[in-house]
Amino acid sequence: MKFPKGNESKDSKSRNHRSNQGRTPSTHRCEDSPQLILRALDGIPNPQVIQSVRDTFGTCTQCSNALDIEIRFKLAMAQQITIKAPPSLQVKISESLKRIDLGDITVTDL
């Protein structure tokens, strides 16, 4: 997702001031959004951190939408069902891997 360069949300100062009681308001810059989103969603998402990022975005709908898309993507990936091989196949694979001599493998084998 592309973010506008040099964008500063006009209302973000006043909104950040209202939502960040006791903190210094900051001006939102769209080019900082990808890093903020990655930090907010790294590991197990923390609702307080996500809300803080939303507050930072102020009224910038493009950056807020990007955050929402990333949240939905992370949720969808977390809900994917993983299918395990049957135990008998797992044993066969493990035994085969133990017999492979990595020194005998060349690029053409791959």
Polypeptide structure, described:
This protein has 110 residues and is mostly helical. Helix content is 54%, strand content 0%. It has a domain at 12-81. The protein contains five helices and no strands.
Question: Any key phrases for this structure?
Answer:
110 residues; mainly alpha; 5 helices; 54% helix
In short:
By secondary structure, the protein is an all-alpha fold. Helices cover 54% and strands 0% of the residues.
Q: Assign an overall shape.
A: elongated
Low-pLDDT runs? 8-25
Tell me the fraction of residues in β-strands, as a range.
Answer: under 5%
Largest pleated sheet: none
Please give the number of β-strands.
0
Structural topology:
Blueprint: H1 12-19, H2 33-41, H3 47-57, H4 61-78, H5 87-99
